[in-house]
Amino acid sequence: MISIEEIRKNTSLVKKKLAKKGDKSSIDNLLELDKEYRSLITNANELRSERNIVSKKIASLKKDRLSAKTEINQMKEVGESISNIEKESNKIKKLIDTILLNIPNLPHDSTPNGIGSKDNKLVREFGKLKKTDYKIKNHIELGRDLNLFDFDRAAKISGSGFPLYTNRGAKLERALINYMLDLHSLEFGYVEIFPPFLVNSKSPKTTGNLPKFSEDMYQIENDNLWLIPTAEVPITNIHKDEIISEKNLPIKYVSYSACFRREAGSHGKDTRGFLRLHQFNKVELVKFVKPEKSYEELEALTINAEAVLKSLGLKYRVIELCTGDLSFSAAKCYDIEVWSPAEEKWLEVSSCSNFESFQARRGNIKYRKNDGKTDFLHTLNGSGVATPRLLVALLESHQNKNGSINIPEPLQPYFGSNIID
RNA sequence: GGAGAGGUGGCCGAGUGGUUUAAGGCGCUCGCCUGGAACGCGAGUUGGGUUCACGCCCUCGCAGGUUCGAAUCCUGUCCUCUCCGCCA
Q1: Residues 6-45/A with CB < 7 A to strand B
Q2: Are strands A405-406 and A419-420 parallel, antiparallel or unpaired?
Q3: I need a labelling partner for A397 at 20 to 30 A (CA). Which of A86, A90, A267, A346 fits?
């Protein structure tokens, strides 16, 4: 969440930035509640102070075997007042917290202004397609012809939107995951993590998925657990309620996880094959960094994610999201999109975001500076990358006239072959 | 799933209703001592709210309750450990 001090101090600037993100939260109402809350707290504290003093007096009177009747009766009243004020202030505090938890992060000054995806900015484009003189197949045809996955049977088992990889498809999926994990950990210095896939409700609150986006996640009601929509959720919460020494920053994690998303409201959009799934695999990058380094770290993280596509010989581009297209928790975000030759579309395979202190504040994640003071650190993350659309691009881009698929060189040791035919 | 034990500061650990304003120790930081160090001596060392500030208040897993007053008593809840059962 954004800080209430910031809202108090720079009210008009906060309003302006929220408007850029298309948010309509009532800041004036929030500030009014905040004012009321603080006045109640001050009042209660004064009474508590009085009670503390008189309580000591009661103790010493009793020790000397003197009557403390007057004081006790007096404090009975004070105690009641305190409890009344507390009830009221707790109610207001809850309201304030609810409002704050539903206010999105403020966009960074470098984020371009805009309303929707058409206002996003192209940052760079990389890679070329090979020229073909034959009709290329889409990933569904390739998968069927080469027996790589089976959507009909997946639907029989689970329903639509669930993947069933078969044979060399299953192995290719595993190879991609292992390749990406090794690339990020061995080449780029991220520490490998394997997280739980079910989390309590505090964890998605840290990342910003709850309370606002409960509809997007699968919930296990019996045990009050949630299936993770991304490894970002468990990984970011590794350091929840911790104070990390400045000399240990930055912390860089890479993690594979299965991801589960209800995709409520996106039915009928890009639903063919692997384009949109309820369950998919992803390798995720997460960083905990000093505030003054976070934008530098975002550039580096984006480049790390791009390296996957670059090394696999795929055509991709990097898009800078505009204020209106930015996700709830992000201050700045680059999307990486890979080209699908058969769909003739750019497919989003990664979102690399700087959340600044938004998540750190929600999860109470701090760092201790060298001077001994503590402050919220900054968190970042990005996919490095999600497999389904990567697989789509890979199959389609590297297919041959005879229907076989060339496996890019860096992937060959993981897959165990240079071709699928 | 059943039975039991327990959660106190960075760590260990005392504390069963009122000078606990959380003892004592370890660690860490600073100072003295020293040629330099060790030892020793002294000081500091949870996090948060509010205030221009001094200060005041909260914080003993979490949430309620009893009481003039709760780390301490009661209820619920979460977590950890031990034993039993089940199990990849």
Answers
A1: 38, 41-42, 44-45
A2: antiparallel
A3: A267
